[in-house]
DNA sequence: TCGGTCAATAATGTTCGACGATTTAGTGGG
DNA sequence: CCCACTAAATCGTCGAACATTATTGACCGA
């Protein structure tokens, strides 16, 4: 218990705030395009303006919020081109993560949490719990990156910005699109567990092909005016 | 002139400080492992402690400086594994940038600055101006990314951390290694100018193969204790 | 003299309040 | 109805304060 508390206290206030905002986004409490008022947030989170600004700056660097001078912070909203650009960048990194995870994991036990996460994703998708689905999805990617053991990848891969994109499109997808998405993780996790780098790479590539197809099927109203 | 001044003033103080530190690193005025004192920097740069700390936080997020609690900020030093990990991450992104730049550039005129930059790199390498070489190299990558027109790539690709790695190894390379490195940029720029995406991709892949070879040839003393 | 202990110093982490600058909204006059 | 002007709200920066910790160097005993 004390370890948890110490760990929580050791992290700076701005990091805690940034995590809180990210979690609020995943759970739908904050929606893309929403205006973030400094006085409201400092009051709600009980921190100083300086710490909040530090957190917002951090989130802005990751493209989660957009800061415009004297106009405040807004949760970023991705237009269609940004989403396609993001997928182009994310795909090679995710494929690298999958290849490394498949090649690195020495014993099957370490892959067990990944398989469990994929199973939970299928469950959560079926039961329609979108907030939990997005949170679990993020855990899946974090695990995949960790398994690979490439510390630079963890720093670079834009998972938080992908959370943002998922938040935007999640509620507009059809059930079959959601099902296809969830199944993709199962295929990836299976390939990693089997230590099959080539298949893991192909699984991620196929997953992204499906996502691009879904994007093409979505109406323009899903995206802000570009 | 006023436009320049306005543009400089429009950017936040912390961004200016971060850029100044990055430039100092490229020019060798700051070396990996060096301790950054807040009082010294605030006095030299003429900014408040808050703005400086914001900049340091930003640089720490990009892995340029490492912050250790109550001990201050140090210019990061990459061990051998981190360098190899960084290359694994950077390669697919650089290849994507090259493919996009080759595919996107409609007219040859836009590629002219890239070819000029490659020529300048060959010159600077030959004349041994290492600081200018690294600065020009960064400009080359920035142009390559801009030409592709993928805004997410610019956000994700870890060019600053690559600057850091280059700073560490640049002075330890042999002339033939430096020559091979500089020639790689010429081949990339030429392929982009010819709108040959496949060749651009291969040129970058070959460039990275050469860099990995150089890394294997370097002695352990180049890297900090891992 | 050497090694260990301990207090003084310096640097950092965090927060707060203040000031000037700028955008936005609202208001009154033409 | 439109435009200039005022007022409110917000943001960027700075300086100061306080608590916490690492470092330094003096001091002391073996």
From TrEMBL, chains A, B:
It comes from the Bacteria. It holds the Pfam family FCD. Keywords: DNA-binding, Transcription, Transcription regulation. InterPro entries: GntR_C (IPR011711), TF_FadR/GntR_C (IPR008920), Tscrpt_reg_HTH_GntR (IPR000524), WH-like_DNA-bd_sf (IPR036388), WH_DNA-bd_sf (IPR036390). Residues 11-78 form the HTH gntR-type domain. SUPFAM superfamilies: GntR ligand-binding domain-like, Winged helix' DNA-binding domain. Coiled coil: none annotated. This is GntR family transcriptional regulator. It comes from Novosphingobium mangrovi (ex Huang et al. 2023). The lineage of its organism: Bacteria, Pseudomonadati, Pseudomonadota, Alphaproteobacteria, Sphingomonadales.
